[in-house]
Amino acid sequence: METTKFDIADYLDSEEMIAEYLNTVLEDGDSSDLIVAIGHIAKAIGMTKIAEKTGMSRPSLYKALSDGAKPQFGTIMKVLKAIGGQINVKPMSA
PANTHER family per the record (predicted)? Predict the structure, then answer.
């Protein structure tokens, strides 16, 4: 039997899937998980396309969105806007 490596980017093929994935990571993950998730979404959409929308180079995007990276908040906001996302804050229930 042959197996292939699982890549979440292969399944992020609609705005709804992307939003659900990002919201799940925001609820359950930490900041490093969020950075990696945004990287997966950018990969699914296409790094070249995201690079054009953000004005960043592809290598800079890969570096900023890699596991263990600590990008500036401005970079995260640029990429979120480029992938069609936004951050909404709602009160936490007690």
Answer: SSL7038 PROTEIN
